[in-house]
């Protein structure tokens, strides 16, 4: 009962901070920056589900983030080009014709479905292949990382059809709303912030459910769950697919807010970087991953502006110290305090 | 015919680089189950060792020959320090080790950037390695042949250590059953530390070898680390022959697919093939059979 109340208070505070305080206090520029961090936070909620609750160290969330982002970016490019028009970069580098696999994304409906469905299907494919064969732990981590590496390399190689290293950028409108208009940029922030709250609510309900209990059981004692008659593979696949879908949605929101998606934000390094906020916030808590992701992204922007080399040392040290000595993140500190209070 | 032979050699050459990079990983991952993401940075340290050696010793050939044992020691010492300070505390949390060593890798890269500068540096190949060698049927670059030879020597050396020496016997015992080895009086602590020294030292040697193929930069190691891990996963842990077969297999596959398509598609295809292969053999090509469920 107390936990329910805690979660509800958390949602109320989150909604107040994101939907009321932030838009009232922050400049347009800062608000758009916060919107970007909110996208990272959505990815982090998924990682919390897969890694914190499910024990699957996924080092390839950048792939799903990227799939969602590129699907959205392709639609925005096509929409900017107009009906049966050709995106600008294709005229520059490519044959001047739109490849067949771009065509479906002219439709906004297909795009919105694709943003969720395509990352989910990729995760389903890899998850089914990997978890059914009981490949797990470090092996899974390595495979998910190799997936991120392969995906980034694939994107870099396709200069004429998907923008290569440059990625896709220069979007002018988002489903008919002009992106240069500050009002529409604010609207994007509201969409991202509401999505984060919805994603958190989904995670909350999953954690409260029987599925959530099973997922934690699989993390802690996979064989025992198997002996009880459940199939751990199915449980893990569901969590992995949900995490992938969350990353895909985050990517799709990232594109209009930030205005660019390139292989540099989907490869091995950004995929691991997603983890740090989750680790700091507390990987198995409900709000920890999202809060951690926002705080780390904010710290990175502030610190790396003034001291770029210092930020890398700081990031490395954070990984090292938090994971080694505070495995439950900063939320450990809170639970330690609660324990001491109850003891006295 | 020439093109096929050339591609075949390219595959073997890539395989030997992968083998050098993955050999040490297979050793430490096989024995301790920890994933050392800083392994790539030990390679980078080996490469910079070669660069420093060349700046101290004028003769490029002597510098290179000296850099190989030096690189081994530099990589090995870094490995032991990492093991003693961090990894030792985290044997029960192998997945967390991955993230901790990733943090170490980030720091080491930045140290390299601050010490040697962000732009890449070049190590001159000695004159006897800069040309190409006529093998009768085809011409191959001497440097690549040298690396192939170095990989063969490294594998043979490691195999001899593992099968013929007392240390090797202890390592194999710990890999097969850590608790039983401990009970039988093997100091698993000391064995772990030595294994880490050898494994990280091999990364140093790999780094020295890589200076012959291209320029040296702070991210040299991270370019190879994913491929090296893929080799370890495909090859299975605990036995060198799995790593050897997987390294050359992946190298040949990559070169072969690259020949008919492009390098980037080849990478994706190789990854897909590894996942498919794991369907058939989830534990890799070879694995030590145990009764454990995990």
UniProtKB/TrEMBL annotation, chain A:
Bilayer topology term: Multi-pass membrane protein
Domain of life according to the entry: Bacteria
A Pfam family this chain is assigned to: BPD_transp_2
InterPro entries: ABC_transp_permease, ABC_transptr_urea_perm_UrtC, LivM-like
Subcellular locations according to the entry: Cell membrane
Bilayer-spanning residue ranges: 7-27, 33-51, 58-76, 109-131, 138-156, 187-207, 237-261, 273-298, 310-336
Major site of localization recorded for this protein: membrane
Keywords: Cell membrane, Membrane, Transmembrane, Transmembrane helix
Annotated protein name in UniProt: Urea ABC transporter permease subunit UrtC
Organism: Actinokineospora xionganensis
Gene from which the chain derives: urtC
From TrEMBL, chain B:
Alphabetized UniProt keyword annotations: Amino-acid transport, Cell membrane, Membrane, Transmembrane, Transmembrane helix, Transport
Transmembrane feature ranges: 56-82, 94-112, 142-162, 194-216, 228-253, 265-282
Localization in the cell: Cell membrane
UniProt key word Membrane: yes
Mode of membrane association: Multi-pass membrane protein
Family annotation (Pfam families): BPD_transp_2
Family the entry assigns: Belongs to the binding-protein-dependent transport system permease family. LivHM subfamily.
Listed name of the protein: Urea ABC transporter permease subunit UrtB
Origin species: Actinokineospora xionganensis
Lineage: Bacteria, Bacillati, Actinomycetota, Actinomycetes, Pseudonocardiales
Gene symbol of the encoding locus: urtB
């Amino acid at each position: 009962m107390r936990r329910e109340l805690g979660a509800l208070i958390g949602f109320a505070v989150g909604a107040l901070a994101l939907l009321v305080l932030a838009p009232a206090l922050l400049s347009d520029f800062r608000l758009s920056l916060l919107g970007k961090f909110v996208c990272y936070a959505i990815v982090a909620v998924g990682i919390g589900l897969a890694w914190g609750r499910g024990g699957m160290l996924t080092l390839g969330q950048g792939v799903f983030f990227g799939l969602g982002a590129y699907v959205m970016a392709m639609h925005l490019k096509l929409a900017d080009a107009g009906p049966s028009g050709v995106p600008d970069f294709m005229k520059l580098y490519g044959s001047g014709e739109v490849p067949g696999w771009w065509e479906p994304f002219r439709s906004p409906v297909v795009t919105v479905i694709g943003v969720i469905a395509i990352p989910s299907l990729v995760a389903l494919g890899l998850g089914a292949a990997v978890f059914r064969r009981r490949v797990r732990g470090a092996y899974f981590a390595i495979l998910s990382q190799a997936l991120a590496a392969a995906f980034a390399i694939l994107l870099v190689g396709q200069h004429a059809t998907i923008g290569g290293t440059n990625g896709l950028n220069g979007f002018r409108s988002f489903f008919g709303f002009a992106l240069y208009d500050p009002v529409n940029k604010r609207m994007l922030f509201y969409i991202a912030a509401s999505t984060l709250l919805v994603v958190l609510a989904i995670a909350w309900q999953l954690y409260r459910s029987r599925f959530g209990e099973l997922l934690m059981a699989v993390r802690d004692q996979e064989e025992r769950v198997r002996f009880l008659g459940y199939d751990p593979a199915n449980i893990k696949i569901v969590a992995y697919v949900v995490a992938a879908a969350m990353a895909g949605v985050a990517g799709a929101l990232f594109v209009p807010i930030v205005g660019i998606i390139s292989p540099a934000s989907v490869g091995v390094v950004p995929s691991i970087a997603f983890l740090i906020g989750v680790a700091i916030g507390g990987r198995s808590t409900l709000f920890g991953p999202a809060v951690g992701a926002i705080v780390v992204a904010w710290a990175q922007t502030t610190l790396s502006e003034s001291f770029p080399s210092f930020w890398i040392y700081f990031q490395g040290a954070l990984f090292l110290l938090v994971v080694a000595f505070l495995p439950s993140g900063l939320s450990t500190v809170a639970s330690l305090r609660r324990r001491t209070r109850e003891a006295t | 015919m020439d093109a096929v032979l050339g591609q075949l050699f390219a595959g073997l050459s890539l395989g030997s680089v992968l083998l050098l990079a993955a050999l040490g990983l297979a050793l430490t991952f096989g024995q301790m189950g920890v994933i050392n993401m800083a392994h790539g940075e030990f390679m980078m340290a080996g490469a910079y060792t070669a660069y420093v050696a060349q700046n101290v010793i004028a003769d490029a050939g002597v510098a290179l020959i000296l850099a190989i044992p030096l690189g081994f020691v530099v990589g090995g010492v870094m490995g032991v320090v990492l093991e003693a300070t961090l990894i030792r505390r985290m044997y029960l949390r192998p997945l967390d080790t991955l993230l901790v060593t990733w943090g170490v890798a980030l720091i080491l890269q930045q140290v390299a950037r601050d010490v040697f500068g962000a732009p890449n540096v070049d190590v001159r190949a000695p004159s006897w390695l800069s040309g190409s060698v006529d093998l009768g049927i085809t011409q191959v670059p001497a440097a690549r042949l040298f690396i192939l030879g170095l990989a063969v020597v490294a594998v043979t050396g490691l195999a001899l250590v593992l099968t013929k020496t007392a240390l090797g016997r202890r390592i194999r015992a710990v890999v097969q059953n850590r608790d039983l080895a401990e009970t039988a009086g093997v100091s698993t602590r000391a064995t772990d530390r030595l294994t880490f020294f050898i494994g990280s030292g091999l990364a140093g040697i790999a780094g020295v070898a890589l200076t012959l193929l291209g320029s040296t930069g702070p991210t040299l190691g991270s370019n190879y680390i994913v491929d090296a891990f893929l080799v370890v996963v495909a090859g299975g842990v605990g036995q060198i022959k799995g790593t050897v077969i997987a390294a050359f297999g992946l190298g040949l596959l990559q070169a072969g697919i690259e020949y008919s398509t492009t390098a980037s598609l080849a990478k994706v295809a190789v990854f897909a093939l590894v996942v498919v292969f794991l369907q058939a053999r989830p534990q890799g090509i070879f694995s030590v059979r145990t009764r454990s469920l995990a």
